[in-house]
Specification:
The protein contains no helices and eleven strands. With 117 residues, it is mainly β.
Length: 117
């Protein structure tokens, strides 16, 4: 059973920073495109950022210049560094792993990020 375990969420003031981590197990991490998505109450799940096995990144326009996605293929972990956080970044952040061979997709349980003064 594939496992994706997120950590690093919490409460932060506007303008602050958080670093999310997602540790993957029971997958060949290096062949998966990893991503972060988020879902706010009453809203649809939306893409935040993705990173391919080769390191190509993609970001939602709303987070460009503020968030950075990275991965460590030795530790089987993907990170999301979030800077200059805004109240509208408040959401549950979910880790996703998608196989670059057959598009099979897996999700973590999510970690809550709340940006509030």
């Amino acid at each position: 059973q594939v496992q994706l375990v997120e950590s690093g969420g919490g409460l932060v003031q506007p303008g602050g920073s958080l670093r999310l981590s997602c540790a993957a197990s029971r997958i060949i991490f290096s062949i998966f495109r990893m991503g972060w998505y988020r879902q706010a109450p009453g809203k649809q799940r939306e893409l935040v950022a993705t990173i391919t096995s080769g390191g190509t990144t993609n970001y939602a326009d709303s987070v460009k210049g503020r968030f950075t996605i990275s991965r460590d293929n030795v530790k089987n972990t993907v990170y999301l560094q979030m800077n200059s956080l805004k109240p509208e970044d408040t959401a549950v952040y979910l880790c996703n792993a998608e196989s670059q061979l057959n598009s099979r997709s897996y999700w973590g349980q999510g970690t809550q990020v709340t940006v509030s003064s």
